[in-house]
Amino acid sequence: MNRRQFLSIAGAFAGCAGSLEEACAIAHSDASSSIRSLVLVDLDGGNDGLNTVIPVADPRYRALRPNLAISKDRALTLDERTALHPSLSPLMSVWRANDLAIVQGVGYDAPNRSHYRSRQIWDTASHADEYRADGWLDRVNVVTEVKTFKAASDAIARPASHRVNVIRLALYGFDTHENQARRHAACLAQLAEGLASLRASSIASGTWNRTLVMTRSEFGRAARENAACGTEHGAASAHFMMGGRVRGGLFGTPPRLDRLDADGGLPVGIDFRRLYATVLDACSQGDSASILGARFEPLPIVRV
To answer: Which residue, 162, 168, 218, 246, is the most exposed by fewest CB within 10 angstroms?
Structure first.
C-alpha cells in the first residue's frame, strides 16, 4: 500500500467510523464505554524496532551500527534514554497529547525468522511450535472485519452493540537487508503521516475515543548492521498503540543490547499476545483466555 492509499483509507475510515458509532450510540447507549473500531497496521517485512524507538543513551547502539545508528541530535527525544526516528515527527504531537503508547520488547519465545511462519504465529496467536489454521480474530464471533468501505456501509445499516469494525492495513518495504537508512526512513514517514492523518480525521468526526490503533510486524531486525548497510531478521521489536483512550507513554522492556540472542536479535520481554489481550479487553470481547488459548495479562494501556 502506498502513501496516497494509506492516507485515503485513513480518512475514509474515520468518516465511516463516525457514522457507525453514531448509529450504535443511538440504538445501544449502554455500549458506549468500549472501543468500537480497531485498526491493525501490519509493517510487512519485519520492522527494525531499534531504529524506530532508539536507545540513544546506550553506547552499544552506535558500536553495533556504525553506519545505521541515528545520531542523538537528529532523533526525536522521548526521555533521557529513548528517542524516535526523525521520520516519525508527525507522531510527536500524538505523543505529547498522551494518545500514543510505545511497547518495547514485543515478540515470542523461540522466535522464527521465516516471514511466512512468523506471520502465521502472529495471525493465529499460537506458540512457535504450535500450528493452527484459524486466526485469533476468527475466534471472536462478534467482530466484523471491514476491508472495503461498501462493507462499512453495510455495517452501518445493521448496527449492533456487540459489533466492532476491524480494519487491516498493510505497509510494505520493511524487509531492509540492504541500504536500510533511506528505505526505512521512507517507510516510517509513510506510517507516521498515515497515523497522524487518521487521528486528525477521527478527532474531527468525534470518533477518536472509540478508536484503537495497533501496529504489528512479524519480527524485528538484528541489532548489528550487516555489510550491505542493512539488517537481518531479528526477534523482539517495538510496537505502537494509539487512541483517544490510550494511556500514552513507554511500556514493556527497553532493548538490552548486552543480552542479544544467538542470532543477534533483541530479547523478548512482552509476549505479543498481551497486546491482543489488551485489545480484546478494550473492545469488550469477553474472556480473552478462551480466544487466545491461555491467560495473557493485558497491559495497562487503555482507559476503561
So the answer is: 168
User: Domain limits at 270?
Assistant: 3-292
173, 186 Cβ separation under 8 angstroms: yes
Task: Compute CA 155 distance to the chain's CA centroid, rounded to the nearest angstrom.
Answer: 24
State the average pLDDT over residues 280-296. 89
Q: Could you tell me if residue 52 is inside a domain?
A: yes
SS3 29: helix
**Longest CA–CA separation in the chain, Å:** 60
Predicted TM-score (pTM) of this structure = 0.87
pLDDT one-digit tens code per residue, 162-195: 568 888 889 999 999 999 999 999 999 999 999 9
pLDDT reported for residue 9: 56
Q: Is residue 210 classed as helix, strand or coil in its secondary structure?
A: helix
Whether 69 maps to a domain, the answer reads yes
CATH code for the domain in which residue 165 is found: 3.40.720
Please identify which residue in the block is written with the cell numbers 493465529: 124
- Domains of the chain: total: 1
CB 102 within 8 A of CB 270: no
Per-residue pLDDT of 212-242, as tens digits, reads 999 999 999 999 999 999 999 999 999 999 9
